Amino acid sequence: MERSVKRLLRNGAYIFTAALLIFSAIEAARKEYAMAAAMAAAAIFLLALDLAVTRQRVKGIAANVQTAVDNLSKTVSSTAPWPMAEVRLSDGEILWHNRQLQKALNTAESRVGERIGNVFRDFKLDWLQAGKLECPDELQIRERRFRCLGFIPKREADAEAVAQLLWIDSTELLTTRDEYLRSRPVVSIILIDNYEDLTNNLSDSAVSTLNAALNERISAWAEKIGGLLRKLERNRFLFIFEAKELFRITEGKFSLLDSTREVMNPNGIAATISFGVGKDGESFKENFDFASLALEMALSRGGDQAVIKDKYDFSFYGGRAIETERRSKVKSRVMASSLTALIRPASRVFLMGHRNADADAIGAACGVAALCRSMGKKYHIVVNVDASAAPKLLEVIKADSLYQDVFLSGQDAMLAADARSLLIVVDTNRPDQVESRELLESMNQVAVIDHHRRAADYISNAALNIHEPFASSASELVTELLTYTVDAKTILPCELLALMAGIVLDTKNFTVRVNSRTFEAAAFLRYQGVDPVDVKRMFQSGFEETVRRYRIIESARVYRDEMAISCVDEEVNRALAGQAADELLSIDGIRVSFVLFRQGDVIYVSARSVGTVNVQVILEPLGGGGNAVTAGAQLKNTTMQEAQEMLVDAIDHYFAVE
Fold it and tell me: Would you say domain 329-538 falls under CATH 3.90.1640.10?
């Protein structure tokens, strides 16, 4: 009976429905509305019944096809030459696998019902759920290496999600790839960076003996590594080796740095080297260019260290020792001449320091402004006067009639600049720390005058880079340049005061990073009429600020018996935090101090050292910079507790690799 009804519906359902609708229309025309409604209802019922039967029949056919496909898939997979499995996504349970998987695992037991993460340690399926078709990590099964492919087949909405996995044996391919990467060439340049000091005033026989000792140390070290070593000049070597040896070199912390220091000349001066390494280049030439950049970076950071340069970044090793002076007055005179040559064709000159400009940044800018004025060039100093760390000094400078319209904001400077304008950046070499990065990126001609150790993200497009990490301050560098370029009488009293204030600030009243050139620069400024009392007045603080400074000191805690760390989870003036860090060093037994404070949503770190610990190297992993005895860092999107933990980790890492 049921079959007859289905056949009837299948063959004539649409005809019967049409007939009933026609009769319904006829009855409606005769005004037999009850009969018309009954016929229309019967037509609709007949059509709905036909659709339901058809849907059920199609569903049954689809289920049979899906079952056949699943059976065929498992039949094919069971005989496939590679390991395959079906895994439930929700919990990673293995629902099915073929014999090849058992063979790869070297077991006769079925693994159905076990978790995939237990069968293959730490194997996860998150890459499949992220829409990827290949696992990013290779899989080690005994001595073989596999790549895993997979997909999630579409199922009905109420069916549990499963993944189909396939492992491809790629041992030979991956081994060949690894060997290719391990044998890639690495180019390095080794430079004896204080060779002139070592050989100065030595006899020819003493120089030969010294060269022999240096050559022996470098050759013995290179022979252990393997590779090609060639001497290019009297103090420069080219060393080419395979990439697989670089890990051994870095694990040994570039032991050549230490062994070279054991070589001394008759005057007791120890030899030091700088190491530039270039890797991951497309050719030998590109690797050599990387090595040259790395060597330049090492020298700009004080030498006696190794720097590795790849396609994307620099890596630093060594460099913990305090720099020794290696600059000369001849170089300063040449740099002064180069700076004037760069200023001469410029339509106007913009002078810019770092954000929250301190006395050193302002002093250096005012010193260069004196040079521009002597050459008849228009000049502007780009600074945010409301966020400066030296407000008293700015008030004194702005009181001078020649500085009435000199100070500009970054936006106003961009409007005033043209294609022939020159930008001179002072007291920083990092593009992310300048007062206006937009102005920096929009200028065609840029020069840099700085004394901080060069960071990995330094201003690389500078037409002139006067970079001396051995100088105490940028103001000292500018003062020395002025002695070669201008008549001292043309320098304004406020400019002389600013330069002296910059030197006093960065030397902590001539107690740190001071050398003979620092005193010569200070003597020049004093001779021109700078009153030390006026300079001291620039750094006097009010009663409330003094109380807050001692609160910062009071909150400090001692770490590693010689470090003071103070965390102030509130808004603190940057200059005040620096003063607190300086005063912490006056405590007996404290060699290093760190002050963490907040400004807006950024946590700042102000670090100071008496010279035995390089705070710049400690803060560099946190994105900071500076020099060996004075450094700072900015930590965004972090809490004070997290910032303190990051600092402690950086300190521990510094001493772990020392």
Answer: yes
